[in-house]
Amino acid sequence: MLNIALPKGRLGDQVYELLDGIGYDCRDIYLDNRRLVFENEQTGVRYFLVKPSDVAIYVEHGAADVGIVGKDILLESAADVYELLDLHIGKCRVCVAGKQDFREDTGRRLRVATKFVNIAKGYYAALNREIEIIKLNGSIELAPILGLSDVIVDIVESGATLRENNLRVISEIVPISARYIANKAAYKFKQAEVATMLTKLAAKLPQA
Hints:
Blueprint: E1 2-7, H1 10-21, E2 37-40, E3 45-50, H2 55-60, E4 66-70, H3 71-77, E5 82-86, E6 92-99, E7 110-114, H4 117-126, E8 131-135, H5 142-145, E9 151-156, H6 160-164, E10 167-176, E11 178-182, H7 184-189, H8 191-204
Parallel strand pairs: 1-3, 1-4, 7-8, 7-9
Antiparallel strand pairs: 2-3, 4-11, 5-11, 6-9, 6-10
């Protein structure tokens, strides 16, 4: 069995549709139940449904052989895995955003609210900008509105949530999309299975 960690939620739905389209189906995954493990002996795959931010952890520590995860998670966690392929789905951006009338005061530390602590630190370190990180896990957009922070570092897809809350993108840090990753040991000992999936995924992608 090739053990595959998949993210729950909307990205997970796109990922499973992609895998189903290249012959790695597991019909029970479509059922409305609370199961977290699905396997198909005929296709030789076992899927684990996990929180998106945990996919890289399961792969890094060998609980899963391969996984599909957002680039934002890889950057934030610095997981020790092989990043094999950009799948060009789940596209979005990690951005700095703030209130429409935000004007930066370079004479003091910038207060940055985010759940992407490492990405934010790396970005501002490269700018030699002194910051104060305020770690949040949800409703990041509230922070500048309520004066908790000057700006936020967060995922932006369409920008609709920012506009609805009178916020704007100040700068883009990095584009994000889903990546096919592999555990380093599995890449060696299950090389044929990992490589077969990689080849099929690559063939399914739009040609440049």
